[in-house]
């Protein structure tokens, strides 16, 4: 290896992280412990000031220690983007257009964009990477997504976890995986960007359905059938909307993520659904959570896309009816019983 290459290898990679929620905080922990230099943009000025003073996020994963030598916090986004190699998007999808409204394509030139988001841009019904391509002319090959079963709370506790990094450019996915690998985290690279991105979006809706049934008093037997039927709905959707013959839906980036979200105590989407099942209104459940259940926005987009393609997805439809049409949750689940097998 040449001297210059050796030197380059020693210079820490610079990464901007946009977002101050649980997943952003967990990613900052993983990367900064791997000697990556983080420029962390957070929306609330008071949070930025708190982290600078106390080295902890005051609002999410408050126990995680932030290393000030590796992590600098910013409230002006363009300052956080200057000079970085990667930009990680970790803001819920619904807020992406407003969060990035002052940026233009120049801010992304020569940079790789990593979406850590598992949601859709509402109204436009677009995946985040698709939206980024249209909004900033960002080539898909410059983009990757972080997928796989990984709750931020477990990362904070250093529980063994696995991630799937997807990009049409496998070498980009591999390079980014290398930044994440650690003693408690293994990342692996694949190429099916839209496939894992759609699957991550739909599994959130399924987790809401699981929460609703739990809140209504259904048991484990019903939930197991619900989840296995949901996997078939994911397959039907992907085979029509984004077919790919080498996709392995049984792998952890797809099925694994569905299972963890459907069953974990940490799932925002499951918790949100559970409140609906117990009789909360959508508004009161959202206010009580202080976290974002992406499935709430996603179900409208996925329902709309499935109608455009003439695909019948009974579980998605039931959640859509409950959340957006004010349908009675028990009546919807009773209707669903007839479709499950
Ligand atoms: N938390 C996890 O375990 C986890 C794991 C994998 C992926 N993700 C994904 O990461 C993304 C971020 O979710 P999270 O779990 O970090 O969020 P969170 O629910 O922990 O926190 C909410 C986030 O939304 C932001 N927010 C709230 N209102 C806003 C507004 N009006 N404008 C802009 N931002 C606003 C908050 O600042 C905060 O960053 C989501 O797409 C989620 O699906 C989360
Ligand atoms: O807490 P949830 O429901 O947003 O899910 C978080 C992650 O996507 C799990 O992999």
TrEMBL record:
Domain Glycerol-3-phosphate dehydrogenase NAD-dependent C-terminal, first and last residues per copy: 192-329
Location relative to the cell: Cytoplasm
Enzyme category, top tier: oxidoreductase
One BP term from GO: phospholipid biosynthetic process
EC number, as in UniProt: 1.1.1.94
Catalytic activities: sn-glycerol 3-phosphate + NADP(+) = dihydroxyacetone phosphate + NADPH + H(+); sn-glycerol 3-phosphate + NAD(+) = dihydroxyacetone phosphate + NADH + H(+)
Keyword rRNA-binding annotated: no
Protein name (database record): Glycerol-3-phosphate dehydrogenase [NAD(P)+]
Lineage: Bacteria, Pseudomonadati, Bacteroidota, Cytophagia, Cytophagales
Gene transcribed to yield this protein: gpsA
